[in-house]
Design a protein that fits this description.
8-stranded mixed β-sheet, Rossmann fold, alpha/beta, 5-stranded parallel β-sheet, disordered C terminus, globular, 421 residues
Length: 421
């Protein structure tokens, strides 16, 4: 388990070439939910396919004693009373070159260090796993392709795209920012890329200013002090970067400015949530390209399905190891398509579903209180989305403390048990 490449052969260029006579990935998993997430996160990345069998690490030990070792072996140690002993038994029956990836239910840092540094396990994820975690931590070890150090340094960048206008992308991006910055107390900035008609600042009760436009037109001015002054505070750890320019004054975008702005924001914030309407403009294209994660928001309409297909056809950016997360908003709206019809048309699974709750969202927009402050399906959907983009709760039952503490802006709920995803 600690020596890589024992069963690989050397290519003409001196590099390692995978053996064609064995599986690329073989996984032994104990529950169907973990299996589905693993398939979604790895399915398109594994050239020779992935085989998943139901079972524990004990099942894997028994199987590997009788069959050929795959290139990558994924084992599930959740519920195992003696996981270290079981991993030791596994190392006795697998070939030295196998890359072993482990999934479990122990979130202790010392345990992680022991198995990855002392036992030859290449990576470990604890449940509940997410597509984002699988794509970010498992996929590079399987494909041997790294994302690059630029993608791993600094805060995470999330681009929220509406499949078309009016599907609720700004509402979802704003509430996601509120969850991360106010409820979870992580340094977060909400970026409203539409400098003329954007409503994100209005949604969060924030001021607008000239900073965003200046950054996109004169990127040479971007530095840490500029970022501090341009972003307007909403709460202690949530700020908004938005402009409200005259409709008669178009943006004179400087190529490369969006990436430079993102790089400056990543030094200051844990999360950068961007509301990006997909218009064929260089600024928006760069914001989408240099996000770590794309979130496509759609509604149950035929036009939204068509435009979601167009967005899915966009190639991944250099920092994006996985496909976008799809959010179906206003599910159950009278006259709308069903989830099954939409998934059949898209040929992909919808990741997050938000029911049609116009009364709650309209009241939230009118009174300046984020909709996530109210318990219900909308709040749960935003929490689920936060996991998709890399903010993972250590324990499913400790996401939000039951009591609310009201502030002048809206309800703030203490979030417990989070670890950095």
């Amino acid at each position: 388990m600690n020596q890589q490449g024992a069963r690989n052969v050397q290519g003409e260029d001196g590099g390692l070439v995978s053996r064609p006579d064995r599986l690329t990935v073989l996984a032994f998993l104990s529950d169907p939910a973990t299996e589905q997430v693993l398939r979604d996160g790895l399915g398109e990345l594994v050239a020779n396919g992935i085989e998943i069998r139901r079972g524990t690490i004990r099942t894997a030990v028994a199987a590997m004693a009788k069959t050929q070792t795959p290139e990558v072996l994924i084992v599930d140690i959740a519920g195992e009373e003696q996981p270290l002993h079981a991993l030791g038994e596994l190392s006795d029956v697998v070939e030295p070159g196998v890359r072993v990836l482990v999934i479990g239910d122990n979130d202790d840092v010392d345990f992680y260090r022991h198995i990855t540094r002392g036992m030859g396990v290449m990576e470990y994820l604890f449940k509940p796993i997410t597509r984002e975690a699988v794509a970010r931590h498992f996929a590079p070890l399987i494909t041997r392709k790294t994302i690059g150090q630029d993608a791993t340094r600094g805060g995470r960048v999330i681009a929220v795209l509406g499949a078309r206008g009016g599907v609720g992308a700004t509402t979802i991006a704003g509430n996601l920012s509120w969850l991360l910055g106010v409820m979870a107390k992580r340094h977060t900035v909400f970026v409203e890329s539409d400098i003329h008609m954007g409503s994100g600042a209005l949604l969060l009760g924030a001021k607008t200013g000239p900073g965003l436009r200046m950054a996109l037109e004169t990127p040479d001015r971007i530095d840490p002090l500029f970022v501090e002054r341009a972003a307007q505070p909403v709460a202690e750890r949530l700020q908004v970067l938005a402009s409200e320019e005259k409709l008669t004054e178009p943006l004179h975008y400087a190529p490369g400015a969006a990436r430079r702005l993102i790089e400056a924001l990543r030094v200051r914030y844990n999360f950068i949530v961007m509301d990006v309407p997909f218009l064929p403009m260089p600024c928006n294209r760069e914001l989408i390209e240099f996000a770590h994660h794309r979130v496509i928001v759609m509604d149950p309409s035929l036009a939204s399905v068509r435009d979601t297909l167009r967005l899915l056809s966009l190639p991944n950016g250099p920092w994006q190891p996985q496909s976008p997360t799809i959010v179906l908003n206003r599910q159950g709206r009278p006259g709308g398509l069903t989830r099954k019809q939409i998934e059949e048309a898209l040929k992909v699974k919808i990741d997050i579903v938000i029911p049609d709750i116009p009364k709650q969202l309209n009241e939230s927009a009118s009174f300046g209180e984020p909709a996530i402050a109210t318990r219900g399906p909308f709040r749960q959907a935003i929490i689920d989305l936060s996991r998709e983009i890399g903010f993972v709760a250590a324990r499913e039952d400790a996401v939000i403390e039951g009591s609310a503490q009201l502030t002048s802006v809206g309800g703030i709920f203490k979030m417990l048990g989070f670890s950095k995803g």
